[in-house]
């Protein structure tokens, strides 16, 4: 369960964190959370007594590691993530004496998009995983993925070269995609894959590795760059958060995954299975030292509702019960511990 830090030692840690002066909130992390965090930061910055927080990207791993790197205003105050913190990442926080609270802010779909000048891809989650995971079963053995065209994966798919632009290993979008699609939808359910993995003494988590032979192309943490590539290359596909598809719906379309096209309503209703939660992690020792952290958290609650500006920007709102729980966390600041992540 969560625990509170109220000891004199913790208060002393807060005081010691003023070694490097900073009068604005510093935030970094997920490129998926970036546009939403920026909206909240800009709204907060309308207050004449509050400087606009600086929000940077870098990927979920950068956000989670960055908030845990240390205490002191040379380190960021809040880390954004589109994949939940893992136990090992929290251990790094503990090693550095950093206490954090986990705040969920909403949900987002992971889309596989392409240019509207081409046909919409209609594919099952399992076949998508089969196309992109690094190793697949051939004659009962796990080998390097040999499929060159989508039709090699399934004859019903287009006879087009598999070329998918996506985020790097630091990305929460990639981590969530690999878990949902490669590991669970494909290797966790496909009989041939399960048998080959068992014979090799491997687990389904092995399938989280993405291809490195050119079928999957790491395109950096900036999802807008992937959007630009798809607008230029009508034979390619790209993986990114739903909000980027929503913002570019005039030129791009989302693939139909297991019979469901990614739409705001389909993701909100749970029909679109390639979706995940969005988080930020706030550092306790900077609260009360860097001005406005509490106000920044409260600002989220003003805009994350069903009719809020964040929903207009493509973020899928949480149910009211979850919004109430997260608002309570913002006030009570329960410390995240390893037991909460199991």
- Number of DSSP helical runs: 14
Rounded to the nearest angstrom, the radius of gyration is 21 Å
Largest sheet: 9 strands, mixed
**Unreliable runs:** 1-20
CATH H-level homologous superfamily name of the largest domain: Periplasmic binding protein-like II
CATH topology of the largest domain: D-Maltodextrin-Binding Protein, domain 2
Total domains: 2
Instruction: Kindly name the structural category.
Output: alpha/beta
Count of distinct strands: 13
Q: Helicity range of the residues?
A: 25-40%
Return the CATH class of the largest domain: Alpha Beta
Shape: globular
User: Which architecture name of the largest domain does CATH use?
Assistant: 3-Layer(aba) Sandwich
Distance between the termini: 11 Å
Mean pLDDT: 92
- Reading the helices and strands in chain order gives HEHEHEHEEHEEHEHHEHEHEEHEHHH
β-sheet strand percentage: 15-25%
Quick summary:
The radius of gyration is 21 Å and the shape is globular. With 342 residues, the protein is α/β, with parallel strands linked by helices. It is built from 14 helices and 13 strands.
